[in-house]
Amino acid sequence: QVTVVESGGGSVQAGGSLTLSCVVSRVYSGYCLGWFRLPAGKEREGVATIHAADGSITYADSVKGRFTLSMDNVKKTLLLQMTSLNPEDTGMYYCAVGLYGQKCPALETGARWSGQGTQVTVSS
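User: That's the sequence. What structure does it adopt?
Assistant: Structure tokens below.
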């Protein structure tokens, strides 16, 4: 069992920045950790994922160049630095942990554990 606790959501104007933090109870090389989001009235969308074994990171096309995912293995903490936010980034953001198979799973559908979520609201 892995516990996942997010923090750092809030409200910001378009063009602003926010940093989300996620603390997990353990990190294992076979884990893939990251974030997915749920915009109101829309489908879940993967945001960014890191493979704990080698630190490789993938981003959704919609956030590339604007969001940065990092992980501190010692502190068991993930940070999602979000810049140039726009209203389309509004939604509930979930930190999640999945198990690596032949590749990292899409965390929005394949996470083994996830947190309660933190709301991000971007106003125009």
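The longest helix spans residues 107-110.
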